[in-house]
Amino acid sequence: MFGTRQHIFSMRNSSFVVTAILAITTVASISAAQNAASGTIESLQLHLKLFPGDYKSYDALGAAFIQKGRETADASYYELAKEALTKSLDLVASDPAAASAKTHMAVVAMSEHHFEEALSWAQEALALGSGDPSPWAIVGDALTDMGDYAQAGDAYEKLCDPLHSGGPSGLAYEHDSRVAYLRFIQGDSKAAITLMSNAIAVALALRMPAENVAWSDYQLGEICFKSGDLICAEQAYQAGINVDPNSYRNFAGLGELRAAQGRYVEASVLYQKAIAVVPYPMFAAALYDLDIKLGRVDDARKHYALIEFMGKLNPINQRLFYRELALFYADHGLKLEESVDLAKQELGVRHDIYTWDILAWVLHKNSRDLEAAEAMKHARALGTEDPLLDFHAAKIEEGLGHTEQARVLLERALALNPNFHIFYAAQARQTPAKGVSETGGALQ
Fold first, then answer.
1. CA dist 412 to 142, 397, 405, 415, 420, Å?
2. Distance in angstroms (rounded) separating the CA atoms of residues 160 and 162
3. What pLDDT was estimated at residue 34?
4. Does residue 406 contact residue 432 with C-beta atoms inside 8 Å?
């Protein structure tokens, strides 16, 4: 789902990281192979053994580790990136030439959900006066996750190059791909689709790495799915897979779409492909739901155990997946008190609408509907057209005895996408008065 999954799957796409990787070809004298990140990492490491004082190459090595982290979702690459970038900054710390390394430090902080730290690094990069506006992208990203959407929009509008005379540019990609998300959460899906389509065209024209193009296709697919345009969504997800055959995001997106179509076996296969590339808890959660639908009880137990293991594997995983575990527990009536604790921990670092939504939902599942309603006000403050938000809000209104408000919200959710959730879409078709259980499928 665009809101919930979007923040977990990625730091936002960064053409300045891509540019740094492509620039390595000059520094390290290597050709740009299709799997650029792995090749450039090896070449730069060799180069730096011979020239340990080359701060640009340490910066480029950090950028390559970031790209590898994007491709594999392995957080250890971000730690390696920090080591390389720290060495670059040790060699050149306060000169405008340090702006690139500081910007990459901001990208790493974003990927690890250290949003205030990311904002600080990006602001430091801008303060050096290098003339490169790309750190504004990270400023906007951090502010977005901190819930300051107005200032985020202002930051994104500074992603322009007055010397650029037209044609596709990395800054145009940075701008359109980010503003697309803002437009979506502000309730303008049509504008969001146009902007993301423009961003994809730029990414293709600039021949960005396959993973980056596929990320953009995935984001377009998510907007289309939320809007109920399953044809558009399928085309976008499939385009991402065609560009990058290992695009776990697009496997998962297409899997959700197949589940919405009632094609549960195909959905399960697609999620299996996704989890084979990257073992994310939300992929295991989706497989758990599909197992329940298909009557695969033993498989469901295995996927539940996998969710618990992956979500709490280490401190980094715990921090990155607070929101996903909270949602899974609440959806399935499990560990409800813990789900509130997890959602509150997430809110401690991220104040976006989807964190407020999950806090509202877990409070509701703990029969704390007055508190849930207050949290939901924050979640729906921008008029976001998201059927799952509307479903959650409807159930909270129902819990407060506001049957008519609940009915209106359920009708709105179904109007946006009549198949928005594997379990909840069917429940939304029932009137609040019928008292249908709102717990997703679970083992008994």
1. 31, 14, 11, 5, 11
2. 6
3. 39
4. yes
One-letter-per-residue 3-state SS of 342-390: HHHHHHCCCCCHHHHHHHHHHHHHCCCHHHHHHHHHHHCCCCCCCHHHH
> 145-196 pLDDT, tens per residue?
999 999 999 999 999 876 666 677 899 999 999 999 999 999 999 999 999 9
User: What are the boundaries of each domain within the chain?
Assistant: 2-246, 263-320, 321-434
pLDDT band, residue 21 (cuts 50/70/90): very low
State whether residue 104 is helix, strand or coil.
helix
φ, ψ for residue 73, nearest 5 deg: 60, 30
Cβ contacts of 205-210, under 8 Å, gap ≥ 24: 205/167, 205/168, 206/15, 206/168, 206/169, 206/170, 206/173, 208/15, 208/18, 208/173, 209/18, 209/21, 209/36, 209/37, 209/67, 210/34, 210/243, 210/244, 210/247
| Best CA proximity match to 187, nearest among 5, 36, 382 | 382
Instruction: Specify the CATH number for 2-246; select among 1.25.40.10, 3.40.30.10, 3.30.470.20, 2.40.170.20.
Output: 1.25.40.10
Tokens of residue 368, six digits: 């704390």
CB 219 within 8 A of CB 177: yes
pTM: 0.86
Cα gap 86→106, rounded to integer Å: 12
Question: In 3D, which of 75, 104, 107, 140 has the Cα closest to residue 314?
Answer: 75
Q: Which two tokens stand for residue 144?
A: 């977005």
Report whether 202 contacts 173 (CB < 8 A): yes
The Cβ-side half-sphere exposure at 103, using a 13 Å CA radius, reads 30
Q: What confidence score (pLDDT) does residue 86 get?
A: 96
CATH architecture of 321-434: Alpha Horseshoe (1.25)
Tokens coding 135: 């750190």
Cα gap 345→323, rounded to integer Å:
9
